[in-house]
Each structure stands twice: as C-alpha cells, then as structure tokens.
C-alpha cells in the first residue's frame, strides 16, 4: 500500500494537464498512487492523455466516468484510493515536487485514521503570484484545541484553516466517514462541504509552517466575466447544509458562526451581481439586499472586514441605493480590468 493517494479530477483541462500530472509524478516521495478521474471529458484529448500516463507509470490509475461534476469526481477517486492519506490536486493547478514528502513527515501513525495536515498555497494569475496563509498559527492541534477552533472555522474574512480539500493530507477514513454530508447540488463552497465535517471530527490537525507547495491557478476569465444567476440559491443551499453539519457535530454557537458566514458570502453575491452584463444592476442589487430576511441578517449581524474591497462591498450591501451601487460597480469593474 502506498503512503499517499493523489486524486486528480479532470474535465476538459488538456491545456494544463501535463504540468499538473508531471508535478505529482515527480514527487520526491515516490511511494504514492495517482488516481486520474476523467469526469466524462468531451474534448477528445483528456481521456487519451490519462490512459497514456497510466501506460507509462504503474503508479497511475485511471477512472473514466460519466460527467457528474467536480464533487462527484473527487468522491469517486476517494472511494477507489488504497492509501491511508488522500491528497487532492485540481487538474489546472500544480504542486511543488517536495510537497508529499514534506507533509507526510508531519503525520503521526497513531492518528492515521483521523488527522489532517494542512499547508498554505500560492495564487497564480497571469504573471502575478500571491501567497495565501492560514490565520491559525503553525503547530499541532488536538481535539481539545479543535473544539474551540471549530467555533470559528467560518464567518471570517480570512479563515483560520483554509477550507479547500486541496493542499492537504487527509486521513482516508476520516474523509470517507463524512461523505454522507456532501451535497452534489452545491456548486460554490463545495470544498467546505467536506472539509468542515472532517475538521469537526479530526483528532489531530497540523498547520505546516511556510509550506507554500500548492499552486492555485486563477483563470481570470472564468472568475471575472462569467456571471452566475444561480449563486444566491446556491448560497442558501450551502447555508442550510453547513448549519446542519455544525448542528450534527454539536459545535457551540454554530448559528452565530453561520450568520457571519452568510454575510461574508453575500459579498461574493454582490460582486457577482456587479459583474452581470445586464444594465439593471441597481434594481437587481436592491431586490436581493432589501429582501426582508436578507436585510434582517445584514442589519443584525456584525462582521469584521479589513480589505478595502470588502469594506466597499460591505458598505454597499448595507446601503444598496443606486448611487452606492453605481460607484461600487465602477470601482470593481476598474479593478477587474487592471488585474485581468
């Protein structure tokens, strides 16, 4: 049995796939298995690329499945894995070759079924690189520490532990035991859907110091220009799902935590609306943020925001009048053009 199973979900990402897979194949820790999950790619290229990797390296296994979305793909790979530890890499990202060895050195065999080793990451956008660091101090945390940490996993501008399933080693048993909480209808914050219950159950969490091994490729066009009219219903679905998880895990004060998280995610909703190509921006924003239930949460829930962009967005959701909306949209649009 290999030490780590790398799971790479793939869907029409041939442009990036070589860099991703080669970065895993070249790990300094060679005792790994690599599971390529082809989620029904339609480009006519990815399926063959996957099979070619498997033909060249016995550590590579390929699963071809009907398209079911990202969550269904990594779930499929997780169930097929044979190692005690799982590591996820999205197929348009890549990792440094020492990641597996460095993170595996931080594991403890006494907690092989119930631990998470979490690293930091680098955002890669065009020629810009930005390091992202978790706010929880590097170190080892056990259950007595984690009970308190879990009371604030969500609801902050920067989370204490990055909630991505990537850039981590996660005990396979811990993850499989929490798949029951996963809702494949979720399309935003889907990683939180599995990372949240795993953190609530894990007995040992390691925050690795430094460890900027994971390179998250930010594809500007998909983020900036693709308006998603289903984002608000998705937020409402994640809000319901995550509240149920925290309630089931008996996390103290989970309602207040989720109220803060809802407000933080409303900033994303607003940004999405400001990027909509339609001209009735003010009317749409007003319809959302003056809706009685949302208005009540905005006015009764205090959140701390520090970045200039989020301060602007937060002011706008509290004052969704045409002038504020117009100014906010102009600034966000100018920022998008500058950074894209």
UniProtKB/TrEMBL annotation:
Source lineage: Bacteria, Bacillati, Bacillota, Clostridia, Lachnospirales
A single MF term (Gene Ontology): glycosyltransferase activity
Gene3D superfamilies registered for this protein in UniProt: Spore Coat Polysaccharide Biosynthesis Protein SpsA, Chain A
Residue ranges of domain Glycosyltransferase 2-like in the record: 5-142
Full protein name: Glycosyl transferase family 2
Stretches that traverse the bilayer: none
CDD domains, alphabetized: Glyco_tranf_GTA_type
Keywords linked to the UniProt accession: Glycosyltransferase, Transferase
InterPro entries registered for this protein in UniProt: Glyco_trans_2-like, Nucleotide-diphossugar_trans
